[in-house]
Amino acid sequence: MTVFLVGAGCGSPRWLTQEARELLERANHLVYDRLTHPDALLLAPRGCRFHPVGKREGDHLSPQEATNALLVRLGREGGTVVRLKGGDPFVFGRGGEEARACEAAGVPWRGVPGITAAFGGFLGEGISLTHRGLAASVTLATGHRGQGDEETYWEELACTSGSLVLYMGASAFGDIADRLVRLGRSPHTPAAAVTWGGWGRSRVLRGTLASLGERARRGDVPSPSVILLGEAARETLHPFRGPLRGLQVAVCRPMPEAARTARFLEGRGADAFSLPLLDLEPLEFREREEAVRALEEADWTVLTSPRGPGALRRLLRDLRRLRGRLAALGPGTAGACEALGLVPDLVADPPDSEGLASALGRTLRPGDRVVFLRNERASSLPVEAARKAGASVTCLSAYRMVPREIPWMDLIREHWDAAPPHAAAFGSAATAEAWKAALGDLPPGTVPVAWGRVCAAACEDLFRRPVRTLPSPDLEGLAATLEELAMERHHDASPDSGEEGGRA
Question: Smallest Cα–Cα separation from 43: which of 199, 254, 256?
């Protein structure tokens, strides 16, 4: 019976602290806002209940008082309640108000810090808030002063030395700049604004207090932005951002491959969103003893996906009874085997159904007893190749993929409203079909990227637009395809030089 006020950091779930991750993994209730990365919600266990309470500018979906009341009610019900907030909940995140509401109601709470936008956002753009000879202090302030002596507040900020970072001031920064200048701040003070700091789509605008204020009046400093005033804003360091910087990618694969793929792409600079629209459903074997006997007597056991080793363990239990040789579809399946202490004797290259069929055709001998442990809808090509080689084949359908609901799909769509996906990566024809059934057509301009030729044919049929097919069905092939797409986008984009050295 505890409410945890948890910072999600700014951007990728890789920025979560270890404690935040552990709390998410055992949450009974998850209360989240719109600046949270949707993939962080994937860490919650089955049965967790999700409560969106995010706000957007001019649209108070859930007033703070209602959020406080929700946390108190859930806290009283018991279990683990995680209030997940972008950045740090206690740095202009109203975490203090939520903590006070819990205390007043006698509900235990604890805070878990996150990487706030000022630190993560500016660092991502190569701007250090403290720097020898430039800034020896940092002041974090809000651009919305809700109470107290308004004029005194701004007078103090106008004469602040070091780095001054303003939160929640983008929409009003034109007026704020005028006020600071009137109160004595030089209009030539270096300034920088970072929008969506920490994300792949982050953007920095550079200038002076006066010029950035003018841009804000024209609507060129969008929310959510943090604004830096001071000599540190002159920094011109250029950290590595990766070849996929700014690319928005939807990853449509089952878990855990979806999240692993998304984090891989983020490491190369993209914003990636996992859409595990299919989930594994184990199948019961009508003749279990016969299935076990077939595996024990097999010369070859063939696993056609990374979910195969788990199905093998579920069926056989004691893996020492598997005395024949083992074939795996590719490195992913081989890795799942090795996690169980099994080393495949044959790993298909390329890692797809055609590659597996070719490898089996070269390896099997007439009379070999071969058992395929596979998806109910697995490709028939490897089975046909085994039979053509003269093997005796048994096919065991161990699982099927079934539709999976994504309760936070509205949050994903909200992110896509701000930055539509440039590409949607599909791991199989079944995932493309699942997208079409659950979400309809792809967003305008989104390029479907297919893991193989069968998947590509399904994408062309479903979405009626050109499809990119991976040169190799693995993460490196995906990265290569998306890098080509990113280079084409950068080549077609018109440059935005910003103002006084700004870049976008």
Answer: 256
Q: Can 33 be counted among the known catalytic residues? A: yes
Rounded Cα distance between 25 and 16, Å, is 12
Question: Structure tokens of 68?
Answer: 């406080």
Q: What's the rounded Cα separation, in Å, for the pair 357 and 455?
A: 17
Domains in the chain with CATH codes: 2-114 (3.40.1010.10), 119-234 (3.30.950.10), 248-277+405-492 (3.40.50.10090), 280-403 (3.40.50.10090)
Rounded to 10°, the helix 308-316/331-338 angle is 40
DSSP 436-492: HHHH-SPPTTPEEEESSHHHHHHHHHHH-S--EE-SSSSHHHHHHHHHHHHHHHHHH
Q: Whole-angstrom Cα distance, residue 367 to residue 37? A: 53
* 192: CB partners within 8 A, 6+ apart: 122, 125, 127, 204, 205, 206, 207, 212, 227, 228, 233
Q: Give the orientation angle of helix 353-363 with respect to helix 381-388, to 10 degrees.
A: 10
Q: Which of 38, 42, 33 is nearest to 5 (CA)?
A: 33
**pLDDT for the residue numbered 425:** 98
The answer to whether the CB of 442 falls within 8 A of the CB of 252 is no
CA atoms within 13 A on the CB side of 411: 25
Q: Sort residue 229 into left (φ over 0), alpha (ψ -120 to 50) or beta.
A: beta
Residues 6+ apart with CB under 8 A from 151: none
Which of these is catalytic: 39, 55, 220, 279? 55
Q: What is the DSSP letter of 8?
A: -
Cis bond before residue 256 (omega within 30° of 0): yes
Please state the pTM of the whole predicted model: 0.88
CB 21 within 8 A of CB 43: yes
Q: How far apart are CA 42 and CA 38, in angstroms?
A: 7
Indicate left, alpha or beta for 353 from its phi (over 0: left) and psi (-120 to 50: alpha).
alpha
Sign of the C-alpha dihedral computed for residues 302, 306, 308 and 312 taken in this order: positive
Chain center to CA of 465: 25
**Rounded CA gap, 139 and 164, in Å?**
5
Clarify whether 55 is annotated catalytic: yes
Averaged pLDDT in 10-residue chunks for the chain of 504 residues: 93 94 97 94 96 66 85 95 96 94 96 95 93 91 74 90 92 92 95 94 95 94 93 90 95 95 96 96 85 93 92 87 91 91 92 90 96 90 95 93 94 93 95 96 96 91 96 92 93 52 38
